[in-house]
Amino acid sequence: MMNKLIKNFLIVILIFIILGGIFAVSSSHFEDVRKVSFSTLISQINEDKVEKIIVEENNLKIFLKDGGKEKTIKESESSLTETLINYGVDKEKIKNLNIEIKGASGWQFWLSILIPSLLPFIFIILFFWLLTRQAQSGAMQAFTFTKSGARMISPQDKKNKTTFADVAGLKEAKEELKEVVDFLKNPKKFIQIGAKIPRGVLLMGPSGTGKTLLARAVAGEANVPFFHISASEFVEMFVGVGASRIRDLFKDAKKNAPSIVFIDEIDAVGRHRGAGLGGGHDEREQTLNQLLVEMDGFDNETGVIVIAATNRPDILDPALLRPGRFDRRIVLDEPDIKDREEILKIHTKNKPLAKDVNLREIAERTPGFSGADIYNLANESAILAARREKKEITQEELLESIEKVMLGPERKSRILSEREKKIAAYHEAGHALVTSSLPGSDIVRKISIISRGMAAGYTLKLPSEEKHFKSKKEFENELAISLGGYAAEKLIFNQITTGATNDLENATELARRMVTRFGMSSLGPLTFGKTEELIFLGKEIAQEKNYSEETASKIDKEISKFINQALKTAERVLKEKRNLLEKIANILIEKETIEKEEYEKIIKES
Ligand code: ADP
Ligand code: MG
Ligand code: ZN
């Protein structure tokens, strides 16, 4: 980019120099003639050597009788004859001189006046022309930036085209969006029969599930221009700028109708107004209001469909969800095992895979991964293979990348002291042993005390089957597993370290949900507090907690009951199998990691 700029700059300078040169040559075709002083001319006249003088302004071209040519200049105030008389030349001699007076010649005269004053302008115009020409090529070609600051992907842009074929899984969402594609492709069909064309579609789902991807796919399928802007860009702006950008954006979109306006992360401006979240941000409200005004201004034939995406539908302003605005809501779920395999296929399509690669196995080992995580995984495995000088990605690289994506890169440089290593080993062995001792819980896939990301060690589990519902028993097991590390530390060292903080947080959060969400405590089948799920149905919700202080203390009691029970379970298991716990911990201290097969062997042998 910079190089090109410099190159263009040099081109402009070159043109400048050439122009200057042409100008110089054209103005001085008497160049190669000897220049003499005025007094030389006087003496030559007195000696009768001069045949003819051509006067061009103050320039004198002298033709000598012997055929020679000379030039000189006179003073500008007076005429040549006057000057000669003043110099005391004989009047007779002046009469005999053949003096020819020429006005400054036409084009030369104008050129000499115009070029010096015009050159800077020519220079500037040329420079900007080159600049804009280059901005339109190269790196910026992917998007055209509109006045609103939105990026536009036009249907002619084949390289950036996304279609439903690029989106794996998400079957229901795609079904719903096919309707939108139909509207965009053939609005007349729907208008004629009196159907109302949807104005707004809200895509809701956790981050990385493919909301942005899906919105682009709709544009690609319908072959219409796609205007893409992220609402978070408005938040930092001066008051009023966001609103005016929204106005510009919709103006552009309408001009290019049928088209799609995609507002990503709409929660950034679409927060519940006056909800106390982030305070009453004026800019946000104005932007949001403008958006609502624009959408309300659509008639059935506008041909613009607004797609918005959020991973926080629970905090959206109810005004956004009213009929005629984002009244179509599509929930994107995290991919299940089959979807994960499909996504893997899509993202390894252009990568060379070795024969031993089994994508199904990778899908099995990545529960909870989003589409974006899987995209990362595929990419990491390619990087790993390249670093190992391999020509193909093997299963090994794919498996290793799972952990890298899940927990961050290994931090081998973080050295644990002997004692820390021992604590970490017992902690992880505790998690693992509780996991494999409770009936119906997950399978231990790997235990490690190599730090990764934030964690000092980790135990990877694998669900024995894909589950959509979970029972109270399973949650209780999960709580006990979470507390397994804590229980092991307490049992062996009779003290507790900060290493268990994260486990305790997770356990408490899960216990709270069991009480307030799932009706699994002795408080009965009730839910307490704000119900996030309800807003998915477009209903308004109570913002405050909807229960009394008395109930609150009952909830707290139930939560601690669950936690204490889980701790007892974990302690019981570990006390019973203390020998096994020590064996696992010692192997961990020695080898730092235990894989599934080895772990299963240790358990069987005991
Ligand atoms: P979101 O907008 O929901 O946060 P994105 O659409 O930005 O998620 O997804 C990020 C990336 O993850 C996509 O560019 C794509 O490569 C990958 N991805 C996510 N979901 C899918 C899917 N269902 N099929 C294929 N790729 C996906
Ligand atoms: Mg996104
Ligand atoms: Zn732990």
What does this structure look like?
The chain has 606 residues and is an alpha/beta fold. It has helices at 2-26, 38-46, 80-86, 91-96, 106-135, 171-185, 187-192, 211-222, 232-235, 241-255, 282-296, 337-348, 359-364, 371-387, 395-407, 418-437, 472-482, 484-493, 501-516, 549-576, 578-591, 596-605; strands spanning 34-35, 50-56, 59-64, 69-73, 98-102, 144-145, 151-153, 200-204, 226-230, 259-264, 304-310, 328-331, 443-448, 458-462, 593-595. The chain has a 7-stranded mixed beta sheet with strand order 6-7-9-10-11-8-12, with helices on both faces. The longest helix is centred in the first third of the chain and has 30 residues, at 106-135. Bound molecules: adenosine-5'-diphosphate, magnesium ion and zinc ion. Magnesium ion binds at residues 211-212, 264, 309.
Main beta-sheet strand count, sense and barrel state? 7 strands, mixed
> How many β strands by DSSP?
15
Range of strand content: 5-15%
Spans with pLDDT under 50 lasting ≥5 residues? 137-145, 275-280, 532-543
Q: Oligomeric form of this entry?
A: single chain
Shape: elongated
Straight-line N-to-C gap: 66 Å
**Rg for CA atoms:** 41 Å
If strands are numbered along the chain, what order do they take across the biggest sheet? Answer: 6-7-9-10-11-8-12
Judged by helices, strands and strand pairing, the structural class is alpha/beta
Helicity range of the residues? 40-55%
The average pLDDT score comes to: 81
Number of helices: 22
What small molecules are bound in this structure? Answer: adenosine-5'-diphosphate, magnesium ion, zinc ion
